[in-house]
Structures are given as structure tokens and as C-alpha cells.
Design goal:
By secondary structure, the chain is an alpha/beta fold. Helices cover 61% and strands 15% of the residues. The strands form 3 sheets. Strands 1-2-3-4 form a 4-stranded mixed β-sheet. The chain has a 4-stranded mixed β-sheet with strand order 5-11-10-9.
């Protein structure tokens, strides 16, 4: 979902990161607030003061989004839902759940916590605005807090739209899940509303661009595309869960994969394995005992001298020993591990012996075949 991330800090055990796209959003927010919004709200505002208000408004929005996502994360922790971190990106923020909520009630409470937190912030900022002096060019601070109150109100209300992946879409999914007892059906319905909202925003964006409001139209269109993509992704993930939750790794893996003996010289590894089989990763074994794996990328970094004197056992990939899974684990477990390790290949071991290889391509092929077979079986 994200490009490169910059880790900022950890609070209450939750890691907070910035996706690099957030910096683009921050620049746009500061520019729009300093050049347009605050000068229009405060007569005679000095450009330097407008810039400081813009920076303060952007920082306040940044903290407001973190507060919103922390509300989600704290409720998720209450229901033992692992959160890998909180990431801010160009379209807002997200608490990254490692698995689906265990019940409709937990889904509802976790989803509604974010908008409630934003409404609380909106009320707090409105109260601060009321306590400050009337906004003038000499006392403009109230304009910044009024902006933060308004933007939190908008953030909470927009997020309550019943369209996945917005919080309101999750609330809608929780309701359908509670009513039907079918999470997959609830996800399909919520994703459908998400695609509809995304298409509507895309159409409004195109209309705005044609009407001459280029900047607003582009943002509407981009948000629409994001919502459509996220809804589609959520539905696909649920489809994968449905198809893989009762399938073990043994059924998905390629048994007896090509493995490299530990004492194989790197030059022989290149000619006899990488060129011959065209794989990018090979397990390395001593007998049947798995030592780790070697990658094409690691071999490519070796000098000519190193290639003549080193063996496969000398160039095992970093943390390659963690890229393993047991044959009785589920396909869902394998997907989760691939995501955590940022890899598309896992070595399957049993009693420390290599018995198979599992790739993302193997998983996707199985799901595609199973869906096709299921569609045929559903026909009269």
C-alpha cells in the first residue's frame, strides 16, 4: 500500500510513520492555507503571519489524524487485534491491522472510535476558539483553531460515509456482518458502496476540472481513485481469506524443490542454478538440513574474486532462516508471513528438513483455479 516510510516515534507501543507522499500533502496544505484560506479569513493579514498560521494548521491536522488513528488502534488492542503501526500518507492515515476483527461488535467499536475522536477534537478546538480574542490581523490565532475545529468536523463526517474503506464503511460492514453472520458477504457489500463513492468522486472531479476548478477537481478525482482501489483491494483480501483459510501449505507448495548444496562454489551456483533454472532464490542445504537461501541480488553484488573463492554457504541471504514455514500452517499464515518479511517466497520445512518451496505465484494460481471450479459448480 505504501512507498518508503519514515519512522517518527512510538507511543503506547504503536509505531508512527510517515509515508513519503505525506510531504507532498503537507506542502499543499501549508501553501493553500497560507496563500488562500487564512488571508481570506483575516483582513489585512501579514504574509509572514499567514505562513506561520499555515504551518500551525498543517501541524494541527497532522496531530489530529494521529489522534484519530490512535483511537482505532487502542480499541483494536482491546480486542487483541495486532496493529503493526500507524502510517500517515497523502490521503490521511491508517492503523495497519494485521488481521480482521474477531466479531461484528469489535469491528463496529474499532471503526466508530476514529470519528468519535475527531468530533471530540472538533469540540475542543471550537472551545479554544471561543476563549480566544476576536480574530484580527493583530490577533489571528483564533483563525487557526477555527480551521482545526472545522477540518476535524469534516474529517469525522466524511469518514462516516458508508463506503469501504472509510470508517463508515466499516460500520456498515459490521452491521451487515452482525445481521447476516457472513463476513465475506458484508465485505462485498461494503466494498460495493466504496466503489460507488469512489466513482462518484471521480465523476465530480472530472466535472470540476472541466468547469475550471482544476485543483479541487484533481483532488476529488485522486481521492475517488484511492477509495475505489482500496475497496477493490479489501474485497480481494477477503476473497483470498475465504479461499485459503481451510488450505494448508503442504497443498500449495512445490515439493522437493531444487536446492543448492552448501559447498557449491559461487561460480558453479551461477552457471548451474541461476542460468539453468532462471529462479531468483534458491534454498541452501547440507544434506537435507536447510541452512538458508541465496538470492540473485546477493550474488550480483559479489566481486569476481569473491565468486571464485566463496561457496553458497558463505553468502546466505540476511535473515534467510526466518523465511520458512511449516507444511501444516494455513495458506493465510503464509500470506501474512510473506507480507511481514516483504518476500514472495517461503521455504517449507519439517523437522529442519527442506520439503518444499511456496511462492506467491503458487498461491495465486491455486486461488484462481479454485474460483473457476467454484463458478462452474455454482452453475445450474
Amino acid at each position: 500500500m505504501f512507498t518508503r516510510k519514515l519512522e517518527l516515534f512510538t507511543i503506547l507501543g504503536f509505531r508512527v510513520s510517515l509515508d513519503l507522499t505525506w510531504f507532498l500533502l503537507a506542502v499543499l496544505i501549508v501553501w493553500s492555507l497560507a496563500s488562500g484560506y487564512f488571508p481570506s479569513m483575516v483582513d489585512g493579514l501579514d504574509p509572514a503571519a499567514a505562513l506561520w498560521l499555515g504551518l500551525g494548521g498543517a501541524l494541527g491536522l497532522f496531530l489530529s489524524i494521529i489522534f484519530h488513528e490512535f483511537a482505532h488502534a487502542l480499541v483494536a488492542r482491546r480486542f487483541d487485534i495486532p496493529i503493526s503501526g500507524i502510517t500517515l500518507f497523502i490521503f490521511g492515515g491508517v492503523a495497519e491491522m494485521e488481521r480482521e476483527p474477531p466479531s461484528a461488535v469489535s469491528e463496529f467499536l474499532m471503526a466508530i472510535a476514529g470519528p468519535v475522536a475527531s468530533y471530540i477534537l472538533a469540540g475542543l478546538f471550537f472551545a479554544i476558539t471561543a476563549l480566544l480574542p476576536e480574530v484580527t490581523a493583530d490577533a489571528p490565532l483564533g483563525a487557526m483553531f477555527a480551521y482545526l475545529a472545522t477540518i476535524n468536523l469534516i474529517l469525522a463526517t466524511f469518514n462516516l460515509l458508508p463506503a469501504f474503506p472509510l470508517d463508515g464503511g466499516r460500520v456498515f460492514r459490521a452491521g451487515v456482518w452482525w445481521w447476516t453472520g457472513d463476513l465475506a458477504r458484508a465485505t462485498r457489500m461494503a466494498a460495493g458502496t466504496g466503489r460507488f463513492l469512489g466513482l462518484l468522486l471521480l465523476a465530480l472531479g472530472v466535472f470540476s476540472v472541466v468547469s475550471g476548478n482544476f485543483v479541487a477537481g484533481m483532488w476529488q478525482a485522486l481521492i475517488g481513485l484511492f477509495i475505489m482501489g482500496a475497496a477493490q483491494s479489501s474485497e480481494a483480501q477477503m476473497m483470498m481469506k475465504t479461499e485459503l483459510e481451510d488450505v494448508d501449505v503442504r497443498r500449495l507448495m512445490v515439493a522437493d524443490p531444487v536446492a543448492v548444496p552448501a559447498d557449491t562454489p559461487v561460480e558453479a551456483l551461477i552457471e548451474g542454478y541461476f542460468y539453468r533454472f532462471s529462479h531468483k532464490v534458491f534454498p541452501v542445504v547440507r544434506g537435507r538440513h536447510l541452512l538458508g537461501c541465496v538470492t540473485l541480488q546477493d550474488v550480483g553484488r559479489l566481486s569476481a574474486e569473491d565468486r571464485t573463492r566463496l561457496t553458497a554457504a558463505d553468502i546466505l541471504a540476511e535473515n534467510s532462516g526466518t523465511r520458512t514455514i511449516g507444511p501444516d500452517r494455513s495458506g493465510l499464515d503464509a500470506l501474512d508471513l510473506m507480507r511481514k518479511l516483504n518476500t514472495s517466497r517461503l521455504m517449507v520445512i519439517e523437522d529442519d528438513r527442506l520439503i518444499g518451496m511456496l511462492t506467491m505465484r503458487d498461491i495465486m494460481s491455486f486461488v484462481t483455479i479454485r474460483q473457476q471450479i467454484g463458478q462452474q459448480e455454482d452453475r445450474p
